[in-house]
Structure formats: structure tokens, C-alpha cells
Amino acid sequence: MPPHFSIPLNLPHAGKIAVRIHDIIEVRGNHDGREYEDAMALVKRMMILLDPCLRSGENPGTEECGRMADEAAFFGRALVEAIIDAEITSDRIGQCIRNYFECLELGEEGAEISLRAGENPKSLQRPY
After folding, report:
1. What's the start-to-end Cα distance of the chain, in Å?
2. What mean pLDDT is predicted for residues 10-23?
3. What is the distance between the alpha carbons of residues 89 and 119, in angstroms, rounded to a whole number?
4. 0.85 surpassed by pTM
5. For residue 39, which phi and psi values (nearest 5 degrees)?
6. What is the C-alpha to C-alpha distance for residues 89 and 82, in angstroms, rounded to an integer?
7. Is the separation of the CB atoms in 110 and 127 below 8 Å?
8. C-alpha dist (Å) from residue 3 to 37, 63, 98, 112
9. By the 8 A CB rule, do 127 and 4 touch?
């Protein structure tokens, strides 16, 4: 089991991280003149899903919370695959992916999947 942070479910902050990922991918696309359609479509779905939590600053009720967290994790996993396919992995995207999964109470998975998204395994941001 890789070292990881365990934090309580925080869907509003996961929404903020989705916005950060969107911005990073958008700048990357503008910089090299390519569009990352699959990655952008997935991150936009993450943002739409989590927007009510981001606006309210709170997690929804217990039942809705679990459903949203599961769906957010599904989109996050798919996003990592799209990032790999588009060859846009980077340390910053990987860090955001790890943080996103931590907010979904999936810190261990985040510590693993973030490396696939490009996070430097020796990053000072990673738990040790």
C-alpha cells in the first residue's frame, strides 16, 4: 500500500480541483495547438456533477453524497486514461488527480493513479 493522505469526503473541494484540471488541460491545448477533446469532455462532466457542491460549499445528504462520490471517481479514472491517451501527463496534472481522489476518500487509489497521470514519485507534495 503506497503512502497516502486520508481525508474526509469533500465534494466541494473535489469540484475546485476539477476546475484546476480543466484549466491546466485547456492551457496545454492552447499552447501546442491541439485539442484534448476526450479529456476536456470528461473534466467538464466532473465539473457539472460537482458544481452544486462547489456552489453550496457543502456535501449533499448521505445517500446523494455516496452516489456523487462514486460517479466522480468513475469520471476521474476515465480522465486519467484520456490524459494518458492524449500524451499530456505532467507532474501538476498528477498532483491534481491525487488531490481529487483524496477528496473522494480514495487516497490510496489517488496515490497510485496520480503516477499514471504524470506525478513525479519524488514530488515533495506526495505523502511519504
Report:
1. 12
2. 98
3. 8
4. yes
5. -65, -45
6. 10
7. no
8. 33, 29, 12, 9
9. yes
Question: Are 24 and 93 contacting, i.e. CB atoms less than 8 angstroms apart?
Answer: yes
Predicted confidence at residue 61, as pLDDT, reads 92
Q: Tell me the C-alpha distance between 89 and 58, whole Å.
A: 30
8 A C-beta contact, residue 110 and residue 102: yes
Residue owning grid cell 484540471? 21
CB 9 within 8 A of CB 65: yes
How far is residue 47's CA from residue 53's CA, in Å, rounded to a whole number? 10
CA 38 – CA 35 distance, rounded (Å)? 9
Q: Exposed e or buried b for every residue in 47-64, given b needs 16+ CB within 10 A?
A: bebbeebbeeeebeeeee
Cell matching residue 3? 503512502
Is 81 buried (19+), middle (13-18) or exposed (0-12) by CB count in 10 A? middle
pLDDT digits (tens, 9 = 90+) for 96-105: 999 999 999 9
